[in-house]
Amino acid sequence: MRAYRELFAVPGVRSLAVAAVATRIAAPMLTLALFLAVVDAGRSYAVAGLVLTGFAAALALSVPVSARLVDRLAPRRILLGWSAAHLTAYAVLILALATGSSIGVLVTCAVALGASAPPAGPVVRATWPAFVPSHRLQTAFALDGVVNEAMYVTGPLLVSLLLLFVGPIVVVGVAGLVMLVGILLLVRTPSVRPRATAERRNYLGPLSTGQVRLLLVMIVCDAFAFGAVVVAAPAAAAEADSPGAAGLLVGAVSLGTVLSALVYGTRPRATSLGRQLVLFHAVSALVVAGVSLAPTLLVLGLALLAVGLVGGPRDTLHQLALGEAAPTQYRTEAYAWMGSAMWVGYALGSGAAGQLISLAGDDVDVAFVAAGGVTALAALLSPLVRSTRESAVAEGAQA
């Protein structure tokens, strides 16, 4: 792990990593705690799902807006201002839950909470290239991916632990406090500086760049596959009369992602981004589709572990490629659109998997095959990806 030791030796990396952990764990804590708090308030699971949908939709739509303001103005000012609004939305939502407010009020409060979420994730990702040497970026983004994946496992576990002592409404408040701590740590990171620029801007921002649009489409495809797997794996467990294995199956994907990203972060960048993306997407497509051939739950778990092992390096490459493709003045917004693309792909994949399984008479294999097919589409697009460094070399050769 020499690469990670050298990365943490860079001034500011430790504080940025801690800020990333705090801000990333808040979201999975909130989603589970909010779901349980709505049910605990006497509402149905359908209402709880509607509240979470309102929160997620507002979050996906609003973060690119706040990230654009970060690119144009002082990041610290935007983060602190959005955090103040976010804490207010937390307080109003908790009050609405405690007083038994109507469904409309709860959904509205959840939408306000999502709309006011600070763009912490995009700021962290956009900050890595600002102070980490270029030869350490692969390690930095691998670490970022590991933190992101690990927090989605750790967050629900922390909620379960807290529920032994307090009610779900209190845990919702704890999630808000964790986010606040993360933001305060982030704004104190020396590398989070104003990025205002005098360069001419346009309304499309990073979406005006073809390479950014291409990468976002590929990210939607990969998130689609993950969403389909998250639905199909529990369905397979239920079909095998082992519903308790659902969490283990989904966890196998996360475990594989964390392990492979950690290892990939220690490796030198040997080939071009495009070639690596082709390789990992092609292998991912074959592995995901091949999951449908698993004869037992044990084999299915091993196959899903393999899906994660391929996904870790691929997701790291996405961050590297997007950072190189996005113009500097739009970098934070580009990473915000990456998050939105992941939410969109996940929603499409989980929804499509549920419909396909139902139409196929509860045959879960069709969902895995569909997920593999969508990942194959990303593999076909991968050769079109060219990094800034590779483009410069090509232009030099032509000159």
UniProtKB/TrEMBL annotation:
Membrane topology: Multi-pass membrane protein
Highest rank taxon of the organism: Bacteria
UniProt key word Membrane: yes
GO cellular component, one term: plasma membrane
GO molecular function: transmembrane transporter activity
Domain spans labelled Major facilitator superfamily (MFS) profile: 211-399
UniProt subcellular location: Cell membrane
Keyword Coiled coil: no
Transmembrane segment boundaries: 12-39, 45-67, 87-113, 161-187, 214-238, 244-265, 277-310, 366-385
InterPro entries: MFS, MFS_dom, MFS_trans_sf
Key words, A-Z: Membrane, Transmembrane, Transmembrane helix
Entries under PANTHER family matching the protein: MAJOR FACILITATOR SUPERFAMILY (MFS) PROFILE DOMAIN-CONTAINING PROTEIN, PTHR23542
Name under which the protein is recorded: Predicted arabinose efflux permease, MFS family
Protein's organism: Asanoa hainanensis
